[in-house]
Amino acid sequence: MVEPQAARPGAAGFTSHGLAEGAILLFVLLWWSTARGLPAFVLPGPWDVLRTFGTLLVEPSLLIHVGVSFARITAALVLTMALAIGLGLAARASDLFAAVLEARILLVLNSFPGVGWAILGVMWFGVSNGTVIFIQVAIVLPFCLIAVLEGFRQIDADLEEMGRSFTRRRWRSFTRVTLPLLAPFLISGLRVATGIAWKIALVAELFGAQTGLGYLLVQAQSNANAAMVFAICLVIVVIVFALDRLLLRPLAQAYSRNQGGSS
Questions:
Q1: Judging by beta carbons within 10 Å of its beta carbon (0-12, 13-18, 19+), is residue 96 exposed, middle or buried?
Q2: Residue 48, CA atoms < 13 Å, CB-side half-sphere
Q3: Is the N end or the C end of the chain the one with fewer CB atoms within 10 Å?
Q4: According to the model, what pLDDT value does residue 22 have?
Q5: At what angle do helices 129-154 and 60-93 cross, to 10 degrees?
Q6: Model confidence over 27-60: pLDDT tens digits?
């Protein structure tokens, strides 16, 4: 009896990748054929968007706006993670604060509209870099905070106790034992927060900035430059994809291996 040939391990992956690439190609073709019958200010063609995208990444005056948005989001994410860890530590030290944080504060932060934070930020702080960073921190904080609180709940108390037995310095025990145990949850929260931060970056900069991609978006709207709008959105997609693929996903996989799991 002849046994059926085993499928090659990479065959399924190759097929799924081929289908994904084919779907993208089909989408681009449909986009191109639709754009041919419409004015450029309504729907520009793929080539016009790609050309504008290249200009954004090459022309210094435009590239500065990309860099400014990137710097603001980086600062906002660092502040958000620091604040989330601080609140998580406070909740760990006090059952009363933990109950208030999870039952009341987190509920408000989760349900408060992002546009509301944007309007309040401009009213409180005016138009500045600080306003944009404040808006991003306020919107992203609950996602990071949920990950941090869950991480602290999952930490092995025996491992922490063992770490404290080797040193009397709390900071050393925290950085050498607690923080590595918390890292998988921090990275998971950071992956979600990064995508959301870039999504809301334009909204924050629309309200509270005179530089950055949000500012360019306002200029594109004023000039009816739809190609620039598409190009700005494409820049964000590329940046988020690159950050996740080159930095965040490898970190998540590394810490998952250390924890005996997989990402």
A1: exposed
A2: 17
A3: N
A4: 80
A5: 40
A6: 889 988 888 888 888 889 999 999 999 988 888 8
Q: How far apart are CA 229 and CA 192, in angstroms?
A: 24
**Closest-CA residue to 28 (of 13, 49, 14, 42):** 49
CA–CA gap between residue 78 and residue 92 (Å, rounded): 21
Rounded Cα gap, residues 141 and 78, in angstroms: 11
What pLDDT, on a 0 to 100 scale, did the predictor assign at position 156? 74
Measured from the Cβ of residue 246, the count of other Cβ atoms closer than 10 Å reads 9
Cα distances (angstroms) measured from residue 256 to each of 45, 186, 207: 43, 12, 39
- Site of tokens 């601080």: 86
Distances (CA, A) of 40 to 35, 46, 196, 215, 241: 8, 11, 29, 21, 27
User: How many residues are present in the chain?
Assistant: 263
Total-model pTM: 0.80
> Per the structure block, which two tokens stand in for 105?
């504060």
Alpha carbon distance 210, 205 (integer Å): 8
Contact between 127 and 210 under an 8 Å Cβ cutoff? The reply is: yes
The phi and psi torsions of 95 (rounded to 5 degrees) equal: -65, -35
Higher-confidence position of 167 and 95: 95
- In the chain, % of residues over pLDDT 70: 88
